[in-house]
Amino acid sequence: MDFGIGVFTWYTTGYDGMFMTFLGCVKSQMLILREAASTIRQRTLEKMNYSKNIEIFRDDDDPELEEKLYSELRLCALHLDKIRFRVCNEIEEIFGYTILVQLLGSLLALASSLFSFSHVSIGDSEMFSTVEYISALLIQLAMFCHFGNEITETLATVGFCLYDNDWFSASKRFKQSMIIMMSRLQKKVYISIGKFSPLTLATLVTHC
């Protein structure tokens, strides 16, 4: 029986670790995208060997520069859509319902442990093992919600970084595309638990 419990524990730990690793990779991609969005002009000028002190009042006066700037913005938009709609959805499809079952089981175990704890005398040896078990359950729930919340919060900041790029002299189509991207980013993206509830810190506080 101990061997079976050990195997199940290692399986659960590995599954949870893989899920959080994927979420960490998604966050890393968004941090890279955030930096790329805020440095579109600087990177483009460096690629074209322009002087850092050059003053350009209208990008339309330099068609080659305008085209490269717009291409960089399109790359950011394509990468953003890939993260939001493809990667996040695939993670939900793979892990969503399994994580839901795990969280429901953890919440039931937490409730029963708290009930048992209320009947344990202070100083009893059983009290310490119960406290350790409750702490482990809370840490598991907190880690799920923390990593899911990081995805939501990091993606929400991409729009601000996009606004920080030096767009004042940009062409009309560049500004229009930038406004569309920022408008779309106003809708928050959540990693959901089996399509029922988002993995956020608010969910953790509500249920625990």
Short description:
The chain has 208 residues and is mainly alpha-helical. The chain has one domain (2-207). It contains seven helices and two strands.
Structural class: mainly alpha
Mean of pLDDT = 81
Rg for CA atoms:
24 Å
Query: What order do the strands of the largest sheet run in, or round the barrel if closed?
Result: 1-2
Q: Could you list the spans in which at least 5 consecutive residues all have pLDDT below 50?
A: none
Beta percentage is: under 5%
Q: In which range does the helix fraction lie?
A: over 70%
Give an overview of the whole structure:
The two termini are 31 Å apart. The model has no long low-confidence stretch (mean pLDDT 81). This protein is an all-alpha fold and 208 residues long. The protein is built from 7 helices and 2 strands. The longest helix has 55 residues, at 63-117. It has one domain (2-207). The protein has helices at 2-38, 40-47, 63-117, 125-156, 158-164, 172-185, 201-207; strands spanning 192-193, 197-198. Strands 1-2 form a two-stranded antiparallel ribbon. Helix 1 (2-38) packs antiparallel against helix 3 (63-117), helix 1 runs parallel beside helix 4 (125-156) and helix 5 runs antiparallel to helix 6 (172-185).
